[in-house]
């Protein structure tokens, strides 16, 4: 059996593209449903995580959101929070139909904006066995406060233009997902531009753009508030110097999760994906999963 295969499932009217990793051995396997953060796609190092989890005995279903990457959906590069949460629900439903998967041992793994989505999904979808939320976006207010006010004002103006245009049927007003300090982009922290681009494989073209209207939506998205309703074990992997998803609010929300666990890393938001920080985070995540997902 192939270690990784291309699979597809439906969310709304669209086909979602995913990778399915299967571990060696026989018998029903635990499975992690996995997806990325804001504007990011699975080729941006989610394969590195999935390969480690597969080697540790876990199947992985790694998908691209609608409107992004290899998945269908129009208009392209439109991030709709409700649609992305529906994609998570559809992915879990599909995972439960895969042959050779133990339906009682399905977990969620999300990072950055996806780290917020897994908190929301675990609070709403019954039967999730365990959750890993890496450098999770937990509070839109805190994240917006971390952005230069001038940049916020300029993004807001573009977002309003995008929303008005959408009402008239015009294509989205696109802005860079990540830029350098002083530029107009959704993420402009000093470590954002180089850190984000470091996740893109050599030779792969990244669409560094996203519909501007997300700048209005992100302020009211506070998935950390649902941590108290997550009844399964959940691991929060928190970066101390996180410039995108500030650590303080995340730690406060994590403390309210009934079965929450926390690992803190002396890195920024983008450093956790690579090099030694990646190795430490993955080791902690596998130890957590071995305790709560493999043995449950």
UniProtKB/TrEMBL annotation:
Organism domain of life? Bacteria
According to the entry, every stretch annotated as the Xaa-Pro dipeptidyl-peptidase-like domain falls at 14-144
Pfam families documented for this protein: Peptidase_S15 (PF02129)
Q: Which Gene3D superfamilies match?
A: alpha/beta hydrolase
Per UniProt, the keywords (alphabetical) are: Hydrolase
Give this protein's Gene Ontology molecular function annotations: carboxylic ester hydrolase activity
> Which family, according to the similarity comment?
Belongs to the AB hydrolase superfamily.
* Entries under PANTHER family matching the protein: DIENELACTONE HYDROLASE DOMAIN-CONTAINING PROTEIN-RELATED, POLYKETIDE TRANSFERASE AF380
Protein name as annotated: Alpha/beta hydrolase
